[in-house]
Specification:
The structure holds 2 protein chains of 2 kinds. Chain A is α/β, with parallel strands linked by helices. Among the domains of chain A are: about 90 residues, Orthogonal Bundle (MutS, DNA mismatch repair protein, Chain A, domain 3); about 220 residues, Rossmann fold; about 50 residues, no CATH class. Helix content of chain A is about 50%, strand content about 15%. Chain A has a 7-stranded mixed β-sheet, sandwiched between helices. Chain A has a 4-stranded antiparallel β-sheet with strand order 7-8-10-9. In chain A, helix 8 crosses helix 17, helix 10 runs antiparallel to helix 17 and helix 23 runs antiparallel to helix 24. Helices cover about 25% and strands about 30% of the residues of chain B.
Chain lengths: ~700, ~170
């Protein structure tokens, strides 16, 4: 029973947000999340308490002054208040708060995260077939969680990315180091969550041992990376605290196989505490002790027939016969007189008695007390344990990326701020793993901020356009995570955001039309993309009539390529081969197409991207491939030829190159007028609703 | 109208403070739920709905679960989107005369789960607070099973879209 469909599992919001109905509904619609309208009094702007009680970090710097973090402070206080009210205890493991800046990470919107299938598949929410599935070879749960975080938050800082790449490279090249590191990591348990339990006071003996066994791997791990050259590995090694004192404490105090409960004894190791040892001895070796005492007393007093006995009224006693009473030492205390002798107790015997009789109960209580004491001592070191856990997780992720790089024959990308994306023989990381090895057709990519900003990719459906474009986005993203990439060469100028408008959308089930969703996504892209962004557009405008769609696609290309408005690097797949004309009209646009081999009437898709446009859509070929009856296919071909002879499309081919710039002439006059209207629309300002209304007007004109 | 029994009065006092949660009220070896909570819990957990004398003519709707199985039932309710308030006996009944003191010791919510049977070991379980002021947002995120705690603000353009992106980033799945 896991909480996989929640996420974040729960939201705490102030009343202002809660009463912003449109926003709250949007959140509810997009995420299956429990929303709390939390009393505004909890969102305090108290900075002092935060500064006193928490280690506040901004990247590597400690924050000394919260004046510039007012919004954060209020949100943190709100969350801490909620945790306080629900957990009703001090949470020692929550001790440092990391502030981050949104600009530190590549921005990925919901559509991009979903389309690129980073952590889950769109249709079945599974892990198989995702980027995570390819990259996750982690050995620990901590590493497993961290690699998700890395994939969710690709970096934009070149130095930071290269630090990761350098570390991955060293681990990739040194297979012995990598193998041994992995062996050691496999024996490390989830230190982070063990520490969480420690803070809650919930850990039992087994969990303490799991912590100890994990810590015992750390010296090996530290030793393994001690000869590393990479800056990051060196730094991790330097900061890696093996917490040997904690491991030793647990090792010396807790038995190898403790019971699940901590209140029934059997937890504390013999030799750790003399009192425990004695109690334990007392309950098992009580008789031996009495014999020993008897023997000793016989020797010291010289009373040969002295004996130790027991009755229910007086407990343990020493019995001396009448004839020997003169030898009884003064330390003996008389308890009972018999006809033929006397019974005594001594201080030592008294102690022994209480030890033996109460031993079992006392043992259990003492063991529990000691266990709590040990647990508290370990809990005082929570911060150290967390720092260690974090380094172990980082090493695990780096090793995982190195393993994948080695196994999948990846190359180290050159990451810089050049603004170029230059990929040679790039492969789709997921698909190449799903199909037979060696059968994936690799492709080159070249984009920059000047002459090659936007690639228009034409070619038949099903020929691999979408795969190709996703592949470019994934390779870029992988490089910025710090992973090697599936290519023979890759130079990646970091991008600030990746946008995708690909295929169908989940929102369909929620009653929005495909076209509306598509246009909303396009609207976001046009508003948010910068000259440092990467945009993937797949068949935009497909959800409406041909002319509408073509017009929109055309206008979108014009907008994106305009350096003053956007200028983002873009891959634009389309089946409107009319758009290939833009190469000659707009600076920065380049045509590409999917290579096909014609074999008589048949065609074979080679899945190879080649320069130059195509002017055939091959739709009828696809129909044939899909098994549409021969007669229909044949008839389609006839109709197509007739249409081509008559159509405006045919005219266009003959005339367009002679037309002056700026005059949209590819259809008739009516179309040019519509295109002009679209051109007038300021996409920065238009709302999705207005866009729709405008489109409706345009459609009316068409009739 | 007859008075409610003392125990019921104690129940109401506790319930009053935790209206938005299903209250697990510890009575001996059981956690018992009453009234609406009982109806909800019996439906969601598929356990028998019965009644308990409460000093009134009609018995209070009630259902109960044995204390040792509590984790299982709590996780079922959390999974279905409820919060559960765990109310314990704070005194040993053997040493107490009259009513045992009871209070809520923890409220389990979807974002504050620490039980390993409810967590995926390779996923974080985040709880996020969002404070809106004007068009800006302050955000704090925590995984209480690990202690990870992050915070940021959104003061750029298109703030709400960015907020959605941040929520998406901290998805557990």
């Amino acid at each position: 029973m896991k909480l996989q469909n929640f996420g974040p599992a729960e939201l705490i919001v102030n009343s202002f947000l809660y009463s912003s109905e449109e926003e709250i509904n949007e959140i509810r619609k997009k995420f299956k999340v429990y929303i709390n309208n939390f009393d505004d009094g909890n969102f305090k702007d108290d900075k002092d308490t935060l500064l006193q009680n928490y280690n506040l970090l901004y990247d590597d710097k400690t924050i000394k002054n919260l004046d510039n973090y007012e919004l954060e402070t209020v949100a943190i206080n709100g969350l801490l208040a909620y945790l306080n009210q629900t957990q009703k205890m001090k949470l020692d493991h929550i001790n440092h708060i990391k502030f981050y800046n949104l600009q530190k990470y590549m921005a990925l919107d919901i559509a991009a995260r979903r389309n690129l299938e980073l952590l889950e598949r769109q249709h079945d929410k599974g892990k198989r077939g995702t980027l995570l599935w390819v990259l996750d070879k982690t050995s620990t749960s901590m590493g497993g969680r961290m690699i998700r975080k890395w994939i969710s938050e690709p970096l934009v800082d070149v130095t930071e990315i290269n630090n990761r790449l350098e570390a991955v490279g060293e681990l990739k090249d040194n297979s012995i180091l990598r193998g041994e590191l992995q062996e050691n990591l496999k024996r490390v348990y989830d230190i982070e969550r063990l520490v969480g339990k420690l803070a809650y006071g919930n850990s039992n003996g087994r969990e303490m041992n799991a912590l100890k066994n994990s810590l015992m791997q750390i010296p090996n791990i530290k030793n393994l990376i001690s000869t590393s050259n990479s800056e990051l590995l060196k730094q991790l090694e330097k900061n890696l605290d093996a917490c040997e004192d904690i491991a030793k404490l647990i090792e010396s105090s807790i038995v190898e196989d403790p019971p699940i409960t901590v209140k029934e004894g059997g937890v504390i190791k013999t030799g750790y505490n003399s009192e425990v040892d004695e109690y334990r001895k007392a309950s098992t070796e009580g008789k031996t002790w009495l014999l020993e005492l008897e023997q000793r007393e016989k020797e010291t007093t010289g009373i040969k027939n002295l004996k130790v006995g027991f009755n229910k009224v007086f407990g343990y006693y020493i019995e001396v016969t009448k004839s020997n009473l003169s030898l009884v030492p003064s330390t003996y205390i008389r308890k009972q007189t018999l006809t033929n002798g006397e019974r005594y107790i001594t201080e030592e015997l008294n102690e022994l008695e209480s030890k033996i009789l109460g031993a079992e109960e006392k043992l259990i209580n003492l063991e529990y007390e000691l266990f709590i004491e040990i647990r508290n001592t370990v809990a005082q070191n929570i911060k150290r344990l967390q720092a260690t856990a974090n380094i172990v997780a980082t090493l695990d992720v780096l090793a995982s990326l190195a393993i994948v790089a080695e196994d999948m024959n990846y190359v180290c990308p050159i990451v810089d701020n050049s603004g170029e994306i230059d990929i040679k023989e790039g492969r789709h990381p997921v698909i190449e793993k799903m199909i037979d090895s060696g059968t994936f057709v690799s492709n080159d990519t070249y984009l920059n901020k000047e002459e090659d900003r936007l690639s228009i990719i034409t070619g038949p459906n099903m020929a691999g356009k979408s795969t190709y474009m996703r592949q470019v986005a994934l390779i870029t993203l992988m490089a910025q995570i710090g992973s090697f990439v599936p290519a023979s060469y890759a130079k990646i100028g970091v991008v600030d955001k990746i946008f995708t408008r690909v295929g169908a959308s989940d929102d369909l089930s929620m009653g929005q039309s495909t076209f509306m969703v598509e246009m909303m996504e396009v609207a976001t892209i046009l508003k948010e993309a910068t000259s440092n962004s990467l945009i993937i557009l797949d068949e935009i405008g497909r959800g409406t009539s041909t002319y509408d769609g073509l017009s929109i696609a055309w206008a979108v290309v014009e907008h994106i390529t305009d350096k003053t408005k956007c200028g983002a690097k873009t891959l634009f797949a389309t089946h409107y081969h009319e758009l290939t004309e833009l190469e000659s009209k707009i600076e920065g646009v380049k045509n590409y197409s999917i290579a096909v081999k014609e074999k008589g009437e048949d065609i074979i898709f080679l899945r190879k991207i080649i320069p130059g446009g195509t002017d055939e859509s091959y739709g009828i070929h696809v129909a044939k491939l899909a098994g549409v009856p021969q007669a229909v296919v044949k008839r389609s071909n006839e109709i197509l030829r007739t249409l081509e002879r008559k159509s405006m499309l045919g005219q266009k081919k003959a005339e367009n190159k002679k037309q002056p710039e700026g005059q949209l002439d590819f259809y008739n006059y009516k179309l040019a007028e519509i295109a002009h209207e679209i051109d007038k629309i300021n996409l920065n300002e238009i709302t999705p609703i207005d866009a729709l209304t405008t489109l409706m007007k345009i459609k009316e004109k068409m009739q | 109208m007859a008075e409610f029994s003392p125990m019921m009065q104690q129940y109401f006092n506790v319930k009053e403070q935790h209206k938005d949660a299903i209250l697990f009220f510890r009575i001996g070896d059981f956690y018992e739920m009453f009234f609406e909570d009982a109806k909800t819990a019996s439906r969601e957990l598929e356990i028998t709905l019965t009644g308990k004398e409460c000093g009134q003519e009609e018995r209070a709707p009630m259902c109960g679960i044995p204390f040792h199985a509590v984790d299982n039932y709590v996780s079922k309710l959390i999974e279905k989107g409820y919060k559960v308030a765990i109310c314990e006996q704070l005194e040993d009944p053997k040493l107490t005369k009259g009513m045992v003191k009871r209070d809520v010791i923890r409220i389990v919510t979807p974002g504050t789960v620490i039980e390993s049977n409810m967590l995926d070991e390779k996923k974080n379980n985040y709880i996020m607070s969002v404070f809106k002021r004007g068009v800006y947002f302050g955000i704090a995120i925590c995984d209480i099973s690990t202690g990870d705690f992050y915070s940021t603000k959104i003061v750029e353009n298109n703030n709400f879209a960015t907020l959605l992106d941040e929520i998406a980033k901290f998805r557990t799945s």
